Amino acid sequence: MYCEKCNRIIETDRCPFCKNSKVREPEAKDPCFLTEQPYLSSGILEDLLKQNNIPYLKKDVMGAGMAIRVGPMFEMSRFYVSYDQLGGAQEVIGNLFPPADETEKEEQ
Ligand SMILES: [Zn+2]
Q1: Which of 23, 27, 97, 103 is 20 to 30 Å from the Cα of 68, by its Cα?
Q2: Every domain of the chain and the residues it spans
Q3: Class of domain 29-96
Q4: pTM attached to this predicted model
């Protein structure tokens, strides 16, 4: 299901983020929340999405005034992609940020 308010794909009939129960089936062009990244990794992610020809929407979480005060290093960016691109985009993220519990090498 899809929550229009949060632009998120959800598993339930009620949005766990905003408690909205007016959810519906997602459509191909619905913008879907992908991830939230700090300044540095959001630049890397942007490059990767471009390389994979995945159109995305980027929203800065902090207001511009705040970013000027604390510097861009602390800024967070939210990424949205259309529903039909979500699978591919999640793959890009999976390659970029492997799950933390997946430790391939354990050296002693
Ligand atoms: Zn919601």
Answers
A1: 97
A2: 29-96
A3: alpha beta
A4: 0.79
